[in-house]
Amino acid sequence: MLGDERKAEDVLVTTQKDFEKLDRIFSPRSIAIVGVSAEGFGFGRGIYLSHRTIGFEGKLYPVNKRGGSIDGQTIYTSVEAIPDTIDFAIIAVPAHLVPSALEACRKKGAVGAEILSSGFSETGTPEGITLEEELRAVAKRGIKVIGPNCFGIYCPKSGLTMLPGPDLSRKPGGVALLSQSGGLSVDFGFIGQWRGIHFSKVVSFGNGCDLREAEMLRYLRQDPETKVICMYVEGVSDGRDFFTALRETAAEKPVIVIKGGLSEAGSRAAASHTASLGGARTIWEAVFKQCNAIQVANLEEMSDAALAFSLLPEGEYKNCSIVGGGGALGIAAADAAEFFGMAVPKLRADLQAAILDILPKPGSSAINPIDVANPFVGPKQIREILVRASEDANVDIHILFQLLYHYNSLKIALGTSSLKDITPYKELAEVCREAMDVGKKPVVLVIPNIRQDEDSIEIEEINRETRRLFTDAGMPVFDDVNNALRAVASVSRYYKRRPAD
Amino acid sequence: MLGDERKAEDVLVTTQKDFEKLDRIFSPRSIAIVGVSAEGFGFGRGIYLSHRTIGFEGKLYPVNKRGGSIDGQTIYTSVEAIPDTIDFAIIAVPAHLVPSALEACRKKGAVGAEILSSGFSETGTPEGITLEEELRAVAKRGIKVIGPNCFGIYCPKSGLTMLPGPDLSRKPGGVALLSQSGGLSVDFGFIGQWRGIHFSKVVSFGNGCDLREAEMLRYLRQDPETKVICMYVEGVSDGRDFFTALRETAAEKPVIVIKGGLSEAGSRAAASHTASLGGARTIWEAVFKQCNAIQVANLEEMSDAALAFSLLPEGEYKNCSIVGGGGALGIAAADAAEFFGMAVPKLRADLQAAILDILPKPGSSAINPIDVANPFVGPKQIREILVRASEDANVDIHILFQLLYHYNSLKIALGTSSLKDITPYKELAEVCREAMDVGKKPVVLVIPNIRQDEDSIEIEEINRETRRLFTDAGMPVFDDVNNALRAVASVSRYYKRRPAD
Fold first, then answer.
1. Element (H, E) at A127
2. Are residues B351 and B237 in the same domain?
3. Which of B309, B335, B368 is the last residue in one of the domains?
4. Residues in contact with B345: Cβ distance below 8 Å, sequence separation at least 6, in sequence order
5. B108 belongs to a structural domain
6. Does A263 contact chain B (CB < 8 Å)?
7. What pLDDT score does B417 carry?
8. Residue A240 located in a structural domain
9. Rounded average pLDDT over A458-474
10. What confidence category does residue B5 fall into, taking pLDDT thresholds of 50, 70 and 90?
11. Is residue A3 part of a domain?
């Protein structure tokens, strides 16, 4: 009995220790970067300079057996020569030199290391497979290994950045990403910058010889900084363990997943990409459904979902109002809403009358979709429409689309020179935020841009600024109404299925 | 017997006459525009100025009972006062004045008229419905009516333009659009400008009181200038006739269709938009399948399909090569290809070896997907890869994706000021065209842009220029690999099902 209690305590302590180790990996005070050449465009040199550019506040110790200097700092000729202990290591030397470098970093105090080098099990050669075994052996002695064949970790709060991210954002947020693909990780980091998705931790783990999906899911489940978890999975090391970790995690936080390698050719490509075994489409779909994980098809859908989950309040969104013009767009939105399992209820008669009162006639409609008929219906009217539509108990959320590009025609008609001066996008962001505060229903903005001509770049600039103003004010923005409704419906479905606390 | 023969001849003559009438509508020598005010922002004034701006070469006669002048030209106080016969009329006066204006235009010689005014059957009121009946009565006396409640006709060749299109392109091409929605028509017109889709005829017919889907399909089927037909349908006036016209037309030319109003709310909105009855999703889907029409979900998918159909040679595309990097994108492309019914076959062993020879190592793969591993693999190598992959008899088409935004990192690393100078997009367009000529297999380009930050506008500019260079050289361009493969697969499916001549 006493023995059992001590055992349980041990497990708890170990878990806590593991958690603290990972926390230290994401916020290291000192890092050794092994494989930093004094010249050229190597990965090691690149990742060192990226940490300088992004403004990592801890200490960086570049290492290369040939020595030299970089950016005014001495390059140490060995890990042992660093005059300090280290918390973390980044390793970017040829594959056959990695195991000894990893062991040296472990001895120097590193609790974790990311290995950017490739040339391991993904090659399919006996040499590569043996080298990866050696890494695993070092890891078992007490260092957590991320990679090999990865782009590493990006953590905006601590300034840890991944390959090739000197210009990733430093603004922290609640979205985490676990990914077997480095390219997808850094792409998602860049997409987040303009979509308004802000990150807690992004981990590209490549071949995943040691630290990978299940352990990381358990860490992120406990991590108070992470609210939404995204994953790119090609294959998993232990299916049962992954299933358990995914189910437990998705019961507490939304987990959005891309499964790469569902086709025969995709699976073949995954094998040479990260030495992963793909698998049958239907099996994976069943797993995600049983776990209440949100499966998405690609990075765009993942971005859409991550944005919706991070900005919309928890809850079900069964019924939406659709506000905008012209008619075909409203019809497309209603068709898409139904397709994704949502409804577009008729507005209450008195609210219809009140809204119709302020709409241009003929051509408008206030039944829902609310067709404003004219793209120049101004922010004040939009505010009033949203506030009145919020009074309907059957409306859970507003899908507002605005065709800002039409102001270009107005610019031509008025003969003015600045499109920004006549497009009321700033007022629009203000009134939508007000309408949300007054009406207590979220507003989702859709701003399609059909004017992507080479000489219409100002429209693009306005849309980008509009996107920032809205997302900064807590309202998700999409280019396309289909994407907006798919994302909102996935939020609704998740909270409907998730058992209440 | 003789009687029967004369009857058949009559039908033939009538059809030929109808065809000529429609031809004259699309290329009128003189137009009356009824409802042109000397000041303000009315539709009539707008459409008059749009025809001046776009450079319509025929004569324009503005009409308004209050008279005055516009742009230096006298506004006639009545249709009768025009000192000339007219071929066509554009009517934009309040609904109750439309029937008499239409009759006056008919008497003045117009073979057709478009009615921009709304306030007819789409209002659902007895007055509106009666007014539309009156239009139909005038039409029966021998004038073809487009509308009411529409944006009119756009014909780049003749310079006829629709509302509010002063800046639509004058470059003619092989794509036609028939649409019940005016907004969607003009949006598609603008999208065509930068997607590289060029139009023969675009017709927004709104409520369609006279001329509509079936008759227009028969005209476009015969029209030598039209190669691909797009349609936006909310409801049809005669289901059986539409079915016959669609089946016959799709047996000769690809017909791409959006059916709006498939949901309950969408159908409700369609009723107030163009007085159309929607209908069950499954029935419509069956109709399109039986006719071998290409059903698409929205305007983006329609643009993708129209571009693919107008640039790809007729034929089946079962197997594709996927060329690009990084790994996750290749896997996503392979998964998408299979999802849309295409295959990504392993390349012939000798071609794999030849391609692997010129790829950076480690990290690349030449099996197919061909993972170039590094975004800076240059145009010369891309040319060589495409030419070699074309030698494989199992490859029908190449899907090439290029992550041009990565050159931004190179720009930072090199400290250069111009992204355009270091991004080899012009060379890329040249070598891809060469590879297509040498290898005799079409090349499709995918250029995603994950860098849409406010301060990364130069990347957007390069992508837009790249898009133009490729489409001008006959290669379709997509932002997203999923969209590319959906479009290519729809071309392949169409030609597979279409009976050979």
1. helix A126-140
2. no
3. B309
4. A265, B319, B368, B392, B394, B395
5. yes
6. yes
7. 87
8. yes
9. 97
10. very low
11. no
Express the helix, strand and coil content of chain A in percent, nearest 5 each. 45, 15, 35
Pair A330, A298 in one domain: no
The CA distance from A29 to A158, in Å, is 9
Domain boundary among A251, A286, A309: A309
Q: B320, B331, B481: which to substitute to probe chain A, counting the most A Cβ within 10 Å?
A: B331
Per-chain mean pLDDT for chain B? 92
Q: Token pair for residue B53?
A: 């701006």
Domain span holding position B87: 14-309
Q: Does A422 touch chain B (CB under 8 A)?
A: no
Beta strands in B228-312 (DSSP E): 228-233, 255-259, 294-295
pTM (2 d.p.): 0.92
Domain identity same for A104 and A165? yes
Q: What is the pLDDT of residues B201-259, one digit of tens each?
A: 999 999 999 999 999 999 999 999 999 999 999 988 888 999 999 999 999 999 999 99
What total number of domains does chain B contain? 2
Portion of chain A with pLDDT greater than 90, in percent:
81
Task: Report the pLDDT value the prediction gives residue B13, as an integer from 0 to 100.
Answer: 45
The residue assigned the tokens 């029966």 is B140
Query: Both tokens of residue A52?
Result: 């300088």
Same domain, A346 and A264: no
pLDDT score recorded for residue A282: 84
State the DSSP H helix or E strand holding residue B90, giving kind and residue range, or none if neither: strand B88-91
Average pLDDT for A59-77: 96
End-to-end C-alpha distance for chain A, whole angstroms: 32
Inter-chain CB proximity A331 and B453 less than 8 Å: no
With beta carbons under 8 A apart, name residues in chain A contacting B164.
Answer: 409
Cα distances (angstroms) measured from residue A164 to each of A167, A173, B403: 9, 21, 14
Q: Determine, for residues B450 and A480 on separate chains, whether the beta-carbon distance falls below 8 Å.
A: no
E strand or H helix that includes residue A475: none
